[in-house]
Structure formats: C-alpha cells, structure tokens
Design brief:
Length: 229
C-alpha cells in the first residue's frame, strides 16, 4: 500500500480515536504534544491535517502518529497501515530516525503554513467579533444581521497572546506588523473581517473593512500572503 493510498483511506479522526482523543465542534482539542490547558490544536477534517497554535506541531495523519509514538516515519507508516487494515502486519525494516517535516513549503521551516495562520486569524477574530458591540452595531447599521454572518473583528490587542512562531508567521503573511516602537501589532486594526474560502471550505483570504468614523470607506485585502493593499 502506497503512502498516498494510506492517506486517502485513513482519516485524521480515525487517528484521534485510536489515541482516545476527540475534537470539539470547532475542530479543536487539547494538544497531546505539550502541556495544554485549553484547546489549541486545530484539526482540519477536509485535508486530514492538524496544527497546534500553542507548540507549533503540525502535519498530516502519519506525522501525528510519528509525534504520538515518538517513532521514525517508516514506523509511523506501518502503524498507519494497521489503522487502515487491522489485519495488516509487517515487520518494519530498521530505519534512521527522521524529523517530522514542517508543512510550511517554500519558506522558513519555523513558519506555519498560510492556511493554518489564516485559520487562527479567523478563529480569534470571530470570537472577538462576538464580544465587540461596536463591530456588531456596524453591521446592524447597514441592515445586516451579525448573528447570521461569518465575520471577524480585529482590535488593537489582536495577536498579543500568540506564541513566537505564530507571531513570526503572522508578520510574514502580513496579518501583523512591527510598530515604530518595535512592538508587534495587527496591520488591520478596528476592522471587520470578511473571509474568502476555497472549495474545501478553507479560508484563503481575508478582507478588512474599517469601522472607525474617520476610516469610513477604507478597506484592505490579504492577497499575496505577504502584504495588504
């Protein structure tokens, strides 16, 4: 059985269930790879991948097994085969221990993948929108029902609780920027966010609309993954 066959037949939820783990309705669970006090690991069932916004661990089904079992990639593949077919038994060949590949392609190995960062932006901004009255009023004043729209809000404190890896990834993507005081702040501030999704339901772009009285009519869009314009 080829690796691509394993991945096409083994869901990330099956892997979680094998380790007696389960995600909540938002696809979040306490990360098993660090001392996690609140759910910070996101599971993407459409792509069968995961990403922890706390410790930075990320990957696919096989990489989850590799991390959980603390084994080589070859051994993780053998384990994955057994989860696809419980009758599958193979004596793994000796193999050198390999590091889990970082899913951030074509860039710094310490950066998180674009979709993971945008997923975190959406998660945090949606929560911010629910508790920010002026953002909800902004939509009501335009005849829109804030409870029926999938939008977010970025305030001045957005991203302050992010870890170093997530902040660096946010800077590279253009969600965050460095201020004149050399502190990291959101590039879009006091903005209602609208999301663009691909066919898999993954967020691939965000569009920000200022709700400041003096910022009426201004907007920004994340397009290239490097800057807003």
């Amino acid at each position: 059985m080829e690796i691509r066959d394993i991945k096409s037949h083994l869901s990330i939820l099956t892997v979680l269930q094998h380790y007696n783990l389960s995600a909540n309705k938002n696809g979040m669970l306490n990360c098993p790879f660090h001392d996690d006090k609140s759910p910070s690991l996101k599971v993407y069932t459409n792509t069968h991948t995961f990403n922890c916004f706390g410790c930075g661990k990320a990957g696919d089904q096989i990489e989850f097994i590799q991390l959980k079992e603390k084994c080589s990639k070859h051994e993780a593949i053998v384990k994955a085969k057994s989860l696809v077919n419980p009758l599958h038994t193979v004596n793994p060949m000796p193999m050198e221990q390999t590091e889990v590949e970082n899913p951030a392609k074509g860039g710094d190995k310490d950066l998180l993948p674009r979709l993971a960062v945008l997923g975190k932006v959406a998660l945090d901004s949606k929560a911010s929108f629910k508790r920010t009255a002026k953002a909800r009023d902004y939509l009501r004043n335009r005849g829109l029902n804030p409870d029926k729209m999938e939008v977010g809000y970025i305030g001045t404190d957005f991203g302050k609780g992010w870890n170093k890896q997530l902040k660096e990834s946010g800077l590279k993507l253009g969600i965050l920027k460095k201020s004149r005081q050399d502190t990291i702040v959101p590039k879009l501030r006091n903005c209602v966010l609208f999301f663009t999704k691909n066919q898999k339901g993954q967020i691939i772009d965000v569009y920000g609309r200022s709700i400041n009285p003096n910022g009426e009519g201004t907007s920004s869009k994340l397009s290239t993954g490097k800057h807003f314009y």
